[in-house]
Specification:
With 153 residues, the chain is an alpha+beta fold. It has a single domain, classed as Nuclear Transport Factor 2, Chain: A (Roll). It is 26% helix and 43% strand. An eight-stranded antiparallel β-sheet has the order 1-2-3-4-5-6-7-8. A hairpin with a 4-residue loop joins strand 4 and strand 5. It is elongated, with a radius of gyration of 16 Å. The two termini are 20 Å apart.
Length: 153
Amino acid sequence: MNLCSEITLSIFVVTLGFTVGHASEKAITMKDLPAAVQRTVQEQSKGAAILHLSREVEGGKTVYEVEMKVKGHGKDVTIDASGAAIEVEEEVALESIPGAARAAIKEAAGSGQITKVETVTEGNQLAYEAHLRKDGKRSEVKVSGDGRLLPPD
């Protein structure tokens, strides 16, 4: 499979995952969160404005997501029921990411527009995710720091 085919497949899978993955999301308030999750939200949101809290069931497990705005950019944190932050997505400037990752994202975008770039931290793994728009269609691509295409979430 060539890089273009891999990118197209990944974009399709990310789009499909996004559509299916949010089917069970429910908006909640801070008081609805377990105490351990409340503590993590408070730690992760220092200096931020909380925009949205939700509870979701992913793979049979309940997770909580907090969407916030920090110094003018977006940050989303997914937290498990024990209060552990399992994923952090934070908006960054394209120019701030490693050159190989930046080049891979630009290649994936082609003649389209890169609308947002985020760092994605899961455990000790760091990746870069770009939101793309081309011909009125939205998609995402995820790459490693060395520019390798990564499977979508």
